[in-house]
Amino acid sequence: MSAAADYEMGVDPERALKYAVQHMRGGDRVEIIEGAIEPVSPTWDHEAAAEAIRDQIKPRVRELDCVTGSGNLDLPGSANWYVPDIAVVPLDIAKGGGSLLPDQTLLVVEVTSESNADTDRVVKRRRYAEYGAPLYLLVDRMERSVTLFSDPGRLGYTKADGPHPFGTRLHLPAPFGIDLDTSSL
Question: Which of 178, 118, 185, 176 is nearest to 146 (CA)?
């Protein structure tokens, strides 16, 4: 049966695909990147970089009554379902369960790996902006740099602070109002 026939019968292909990745057996976590199912399997050095960011923002996140995590972000109307390395979300929204939308976050952080660097640099940056994530922090381990993107719009982020080499102090604007030490990334 064709995708058009499925749609005519009331089967929404986007919804079916997103349902399937949420109910995979074995606990494997996956993302959907522009319609392609991609496994989420970060290495320990990748996790160490994310943890260095998480540790620094955690006190401010608590003050803001938020949580950090790597829960699912849905991008409705597209074949995208992301699992960011870190998302900062208001606690009351996080307690609602299920996936969230990028515009419900305060900050999204992606840490590049060799297998996904271009996806994080280009595709996710564009999509997070399109779906209203207010701040997108790209920790580019291949380029050894950090860039903070802000002021999202349909065509992308209109402001970029960086790229800055690892070791630079990077200011996270309101509501955070803190500086990140990037020397340990």
Answer: 185
> What's 129's domain CATH number?
3.90.1570.10
pLDDT tens-place string over residues 106-154: 999 999 998 889 999 999 999 999 999 999 999 999 999 999 999 999 8
Domain extent, residue 78, equals 42-181
Give CA torsion, residues 145, 149, 53, 34, to 10 deg: -90
Instruction: Based on DSSP, count helices (H) and strands (E) in the chain, helices before strands.
Output: 6, 12
Give me the long-range contacts of 72-76 (CB less than 8 A, separation at least 24): 72/22, 72/98, 72/99, 72/100, 73/99, 73/100, 73/101, 73/102, 73/105, 73/108, 74/18, 74/99, 74/100, 74/101, 75/101, 75/102, 75/127, 75/130, 75/131, 76/14, 76/101
